[in-house]
Design brief:
The protein is an all-alpha fold and 110 residues long. It is built from 6 helices and no strands.
Length: 110
Amino acid sequence: MLASLNSWAWYLHDRGKHEEAEPILREALPRLEQSEGRDNQHTVQVLVSLASSLYAQRRLDEALVLQRDAADRLMDRFLPERPVRKALIDFSSFCVSSPASPKSTASRSG
């Protein structure tokens, strides 16, 4: 049941049907957390897909919270050392808060 739910959510997500995929991803996430664990690769993939769906719907604040949660889960698993983790968070926050504007990109290429 959970596998087919995830497959359907991925199908919708991959086809840009983000509003339809969102409730399925939200339903799948706690089930995966319970059955596979919070830091499991598949659980984090669903979390990232949910964030991506929210981003595509222009629900940026919600998407950013989920992306940070996904990053924290991966860092807990792969980068437990705090100094490395802090540097990575600081860098990613800088990248998110200061994207290149289209004008500055266009002026560099032309």
